[in-house]
Amino acid sequence: MALPCSLNRYLLLMAQEHLEFRLPEIKSLLSLFGGQFTNNQETYGKSPFWILTIPSEEIARKLMKRTVCAKSIFELWGHGKSPEELYSSLRNYPVEKMALEFLPFEGKVNLKKPQHIFSVLEDYGLDPNCIPENPHNIYFGRWIADGQRELIESYSVKKRHYIGNTSMDAGLSFIMANHGKVKKNDIVFDPFVGTGGLLIASAHFGAYVYGTDIDYNTVHGLGKASRKNQKWRGPDENIRANLRQYGLEKYYLDVLVSDASKPSWKKGTYFDAIITDPPYGIRESTRRTGSQKEIQKGIEKCPESHVPVSLNYHLSDMFFDLLNFAAETLTLGGRLVYWLPVYTPEYTEEMVPWHPCLKLISNCEQKLSSHTARRLITMEKVKNFENQDQYSHLLSDQFLPYQGHNSFREKYFSGITKRIAKEEKSSQE
Q1: Packing angle of the helix pair 197-204, 170-179 (nearest 10 deg)
Q2: What's the rounded Cα separation, in Å, for the pair 354 and 319?
């Protein structure tokens, strides 16, 4: 049976997880493979059914080799709100494109090794407690490819040799790499590398990975283990071993002990993407190195020495240092992807840090509690860094509001304390 020519209209079946992250991922991947996101109708919200126009089947297949937010893609032959509308839609599919009359397929049916798979998909809405008698929409199409949902299980943190208190969920790690448009032979950097979970996702897509962290024991895989019933970390519990576990060691460049507030890089562009999860001061402290001179007055001082001391690293300083570093070291068109913690009652979009060299691409929320969240921020470098760009953010109206997030830790635990008190009061009544 001859394949029908594509009308470039595809039905994307999305996973009902991380809803805000889906559209930026699909847009980023289409852009990476030479396509552009355009929709024929408003089907890219909470619905799992999206109708897209994609330039070619080849791009559609490339998209599905990367996405973890989509389950499957189909070449859309017809759709309608009823069987009659679907029938009419299919009849309007051009005969020269289908090379058939109204679906009287010729040839033998082979269910074990089919050449082509055709599917009918029915949309019954989003409320499982109120399922209509008839579907809202019915779709018919030719199956093209499945997405990469199996990566979430095969790269699960539960199966990983080396983990820590803040090891990133595998699904979110791959979403971050896709938002960053990571591709083969890129160089990807994580300045807060921790146990290296974000490096694994980028290496899986063929990028060379590199990272730094201020914590010596974490970088070298030393000290107490994070796993239950295990006292000390073993010899295979380090970042290199994690990549070796997945057959990705050839993409490992190195990890170094370094302070993100004092990068030791020469001026230049080194990275195609910076993908990171900075500490928020909840499970991991926000620290930087300093000298005795920087310790606030009122604390008993030791004699001056060259040995650095650990100081608090305000969130506002951390993120503006990160943006400056990205503006300096990313290649033009390279992307910065990072998590920004926010206190939900006070959050506004104006609080997201900005930089004149970086363009905001997407801003997605993941709720942490009733009063806190973290937002996945994706930015793209759009102009070369100049010296005057380093402090331009200080002139922005956004700088002062964002400084309020320096107290994120206090607000986080304050909310927990209030919730516990409320629950105890309710139980006593």
Answers
A1: 60
A2: 9
Contact 35, 100 (CB under 8 A): no
Q: Which are the contacts of 425, defined by CB distance < 8 A and separation ≥ 6?
A: none
Are the CB atoms for 164 and 195 separated by under 8 Å?
yes
Tokens standing for residue 354: 């900005």
pLDDT digits (tens, 9 = 90+) for 357-413: 999 999 999 998 888 899 999 999 999 998 777 766 655 555 555 555 556 666 666
40 band by pLDDT with thresholds 50, 70 and 90: low
CB 59, CB 35: distance < 8 Å = yes
First vs last C-alpha separation in the chain? 73
Which residue in this structure is represented by tokens 């559609």?
60
pLDDT tens for residues 165-184? 778 999 999 999 999 999 99
Distance CA(299)–CA(294), nearest Å, equals 11
As a whole number of angstroms, the distance between CA 146 and CA 60 comes to 10
Stated pTM of the model: 0.84
